[in-house]
Write a structure and sequence with these properties.
Blueprint: E1 4-9, E2 12-13, E3 19-20, H1 32-47, E4 50-52, H2 60-69, E5 72-81, E6 88-92, H3 97-114, E7 118-122, H4 134-138, E8 142-150, H5 154-160, H6 163-181, E9 185-189, E10 194-197, E11 206-210, E12 215-218, E13 220-222, E14 227-229, E15 235-237, E16 242-244
Parallel strand pairs: 1-4, 1-5, 5-8, 6-7
Antiparallel strand pairs: 2-3, 6-8, 9-12, 9-16, 10-11, 13-14, 14-15
The structure holds zinc ion (ZN).
């Protein structure tokens, strides 16, 4: 994939600069923005990618500006649905095969992990025939909008309102993106013993080492393509001691 993934958190601030909770639970205790933020943190942790609007201080136009200012290849914004339904669904840029594949895998993955209904990949157009959601319409990279669960459905909310639930949802979402956007590029170790680390950071704990001559596959990259994730987990600095294997 060209460029990294970026995860954006829906809501938090409206165009007038006031707090925008997004949708709320039936008892009004849970706000869409706050749960979306927790889910987004776990997803970004898994993917080792940037996160936009983590502090709820970016309105939609600013979030889109941030997406377009970065050199990202794919953008996903996290939301919770409302309006009296149940399950997970993901909107994608109409006509984008990549967007559709990502939306499909993400919805499948969340629905499987949380054991909720899979409403599947969707498009939504406005009266002008353009994509309804500004985040999808105006983001330069391919973008999806993930409606993880319905916040106004108590049994859906139950699945994501705890840290464990948000983690399960965030990681499922990340794995769906990883599967859909997988590069599956092969590398070969050219130096002695290169480290596989727990995150895309040279100071993070070392999980294991790869021997010289060993081949490994990268499923997805982060930090401007500098780090690659291995299928079983763990990250390798692709610029140090390895090279792309010739097919
Ligand atoms: Zn929303």
């Amino acid at each position: 994939m060209r460029g990294d993934i970026v995860i954006s958190v829906g809501h938090g601030k409206n165009a007038a600069g006031k707090y925008d909770p997004g949708a709320v639970s039936r008892d009004r205790k849970y706000h869409e923005h706050r749960i979306a933020r927790e889910i987004a943190r776990y997803a970004a942790e898994y993917l080792q990618c940037d996160i936009i609007n983590e502090n709820g201080n970016r309105c939609l136009a600013e979030r889109i500006r941030d997406v377009n200012a970065g050199n990202y290849g794919f953008a996903a914004e996290i939301h919770l649905n409302a309006g009296g339904g149940t399950g997970t669904e993901t909107y994608y840029y109409h006509g984008s095969p990549t967007g559709k594949r990502a939306a499909d895998e993400v919805s499948k993955s969340i629905s499987g992990a949380l054991k909720i209904r899979n409403r599947g990949p969707k498009i939504r157009l406005n009266s002008a025939g353009r994509d309804y959601f500004g985040f999808i319409r105006q983001s330069k990279p391919c973008a999806v909008l993930i409606e993880t669960v319905f916040i106004d459905c108590d049994s859906d909310l139950e699945k994501v309102k705890t840290p464990e639930g948000a983690k399960a949802c965030g990681e499922a979402l990340a794995k769906g993106l990883e599967k859909a956007l997988a590069e599956n590029t092969h590398y070969e170790v050219t130096a002695c013993n290169i480290a596989v680390r727990s995150t895309a950071d040279a100071d993070s704990p070392e999980i294991r080492r790869l021997a010289k001559g060993e081949n490994f596959k990268v499923t997805i990259t982060a930090k401007n393509g500098k780090w690659g994730r291995l299928p079983g987990g763990g990250w390798v600095n692709l610029e140090k001691g390895c090279r792309r294997a010739k097919k």
